Amino acid sequence: AERVWEGIEIYPNPFSSVLTIKNETALRGRYELVTLQGQTVRAGEIQSSELSIDTEELPLGIYFARLAAASGEIRIVRLVKY
Q1: Strand partners, 35
Q2: Tens digits of residue pLDDT in 29-72
Q3: Rounded CA gap, 80 and 49, in Å?
Q4: Under DSSP, is residue 29 helix (H, G, I), strand (E, B) or coil?
């Protein structure tokens, strides 16, 4: 399952106003940005080599990026907004 996520980066971490998902392997799937309370605050499709997510209006704190590949593999990354 780890090989599925090779070439996928989420940065910067910590982030402030924009979060980027770099997708060098052309992975198809979905992303969700979730609060500690489990509320999804951003979500969408991963379909390009680089995706920018506007996070300007989100409050400061800890979030989780949940990445789901079309093949079913899941990856969760802890992120901090400052």
Answers
A1: 63
A2: 999 999 999 999 999 999 899 999 999 999 999 999 999 998 89
A3: 23
A4: strand
